[in-house]
Amino acid sequence: MNRRLALKQLAMAAGGLALIPSCDFSEEKVLAAYDELQITESQQQLLQKLVDTIIPKTDLKGATELGVHNFVLVMANDCMSAEEQKQFLGGLKGFDDYTKKTSGTRFTKMDNVEAEKTVNAILEDKPTSDDEMATKYFLQTTKKYTIQGYLNSEYVMTELMPFQLVPGPEFNGKKEIVPGEKVNING
Amino acid sequence: MANLNIKSKQENTYGAIVIGSGMSGGFAAKELCDKGVKTLVLERGRSVIHNKDYPTTNMMPWEFEHRGQMPEDIQRENPVVSRCYAFREDAAHFFVKDQEHPYIQEKPFDWIRGYQTGGKSLLWARQVQRWSDHDFEGPARDGFAVDWPIRYKDLAPWYSYVEKFVGVAGFHDGIPQLPDGEFLPGIELTAAEEYFKSVVEQKYPGRNVISGRCAHITGNAEYYAKQGRGICQHRTICQRGCPFGGYFSSNSASLPWAQRTGNLTLKNHAVVHSIIYDDAQQKATGVRVIDANTKEVTEYFAPIIFVNASALNTNLILLNSTSKRFPNGLGNDNGLMGKYVAFHNYRGGVSGEYDGLKEFTTEGKRPTSGYMPRFRNVDKQETKFLRGYAAGIHGSRSKDVNYSGTGADLVKNMMNPSYGPWRVGSHMMGETIPKESNYVALDTDQKDEWGMPQLKVNVDYDQNDLDMIQDYRDQLSEMFDEAGFKNIRTWDDERRPGLDIHEMGGVRMGHDPKTSLLNKHHQLHTCPNVYVTDGACMTSTSTQNPSLTYMVFAARAVDHALKNQG
Asked: Which InterPro entries does this entry report, sorted A to Z (chain A) (predicted)?
């Protein structure tokens, strides 16, 4: 746990440094927290845009606001096999070029409507090439972890779908459902 | 020098030594200390003190970096323990990693271990069904293993004694093969389970569905407050250690109780090398211990020694306890020690859905589930396989979340879940037949880092187990079908032996020193001041979870040891 915390702080430090204008984009810093992935600040920003496309801010908080993009990277870095990481990274690194090729605009330059349309199209498409496969895998995985990170965030689990750490000794095996009552997946 | 040795011998001498602080060792220690015996408990793992050393117990789900999942590199480095359902981010620190204590799998075997104060009593699934004469008479009736030297009537009062201390939630169900006990208020079944129960009990005479009896405090709060324990709060994250002491563990109950008598000395990081046998006195006089960290060897002495190191480690210690009198392991004149190891068959599972009872759901969480006591071959042999299986039964209302789409649509979908059908499921708990060919033995070459021989494990399923899995799948899916459940699916997950975490035997009980290692009081036939009351002593395995019975054995054996001390 401490190792992770240290790495996260390191990453924040690295992220901070990257804000200093630099002309040498070829030697962009890799984010130290995600040692397996070796991704850069701009790739992280792309991912940030992507998770916010999947779960944008509405009346409710959006994914980026909850730091879900970091969760996606932690899971990709720590919980994927080498093969899965390869596909995921292939998709991530090529994503901007891929969208430029298929829709004429880089994903990072799209407005929200276009971004969502593009993501949906890729998710619904049947991939035919390796490129398309990696892209779709990357998107599916990102969506999966985005949903997981969002639904299991403190915000959702306290304000929207309250979770009780100490439910108490009452258990009702046959509770009558009140029609119209909100269903709580953590209840 | 001579004087120093005498002094150290005096300092290292106790009224009794207990090897292992888990379920059975903890209870033996409690009983000994309660009766005024200065008791040394040797635990090979680190100290885990109730409520002080439960680092994850109050963590919220979002505070786990991987939301519970174990990182890929840890899984890759630990294929064995990673197969255990409870080896997750919240409790991984209570499991032994694969490299920490290597063993030799001559046949695939997942040895799941917990080396710390309390052992696996922190991690168990807390089901405490009594055994019955259908279990203790099984070998004699069916002609396998050897006859148990005890019967249910020998244990019944001890079951009551232990259950009262432990705290057992349950109902009086009046089922002959699953005797009732001393119960606190039971935890109710869900609507789907109730319904399934009514179908089964109507259409299949002799088959029952009940609420599984579990080691959770659901009443009599004043009595348990004396143990420092409170009512179970149904958190159902027991494997982290319970801050309320709501479920029974050595850490929350028996060891603190023993501590308060002033008679307990608990020594951690104490890897037991062997039991010392004195040829002149013709008895065991003590225990040789290696410090897990410094590797320093120390000897401790006592007139009574309880071996409760967990089934396979108890075999390992006894086999490694060689002397002129016992060149093949302490008490092992007949060469049977390590043999007739058996376990529980958990391979089969069934699932389905029920579209009825739409107006109901459940509220809250419960630390148990439905349970179907053994119904096969109970009074007479009716199948081609010997013995039978019990089944866990669970039914809960599913919640459907629509994850389709992205953007505002996805948010709206996710935030408006609905109730789906009831999901019903079951898993089997089958009895396996102890066989001479299922054994553990010491490797003559490979040692672990403490210089102990590595344990070789040779345990496998047989045709009886496969036939039983098939029968379980057939019977349960038929009953599910009778109940009108849909989308019924059955499977055999082909898990490796050991993953049931109910390994038993190797130092079995029996009447005859020629065919067994322990007598009816759990004493080694040929070294009677050494008692074994953990899983190693089991002659056969029944279909019920064994931990309660280990504690009963420990309490009963301590009583015998103190009444018969020369």
From this structure: Gluconate_2DH_su3
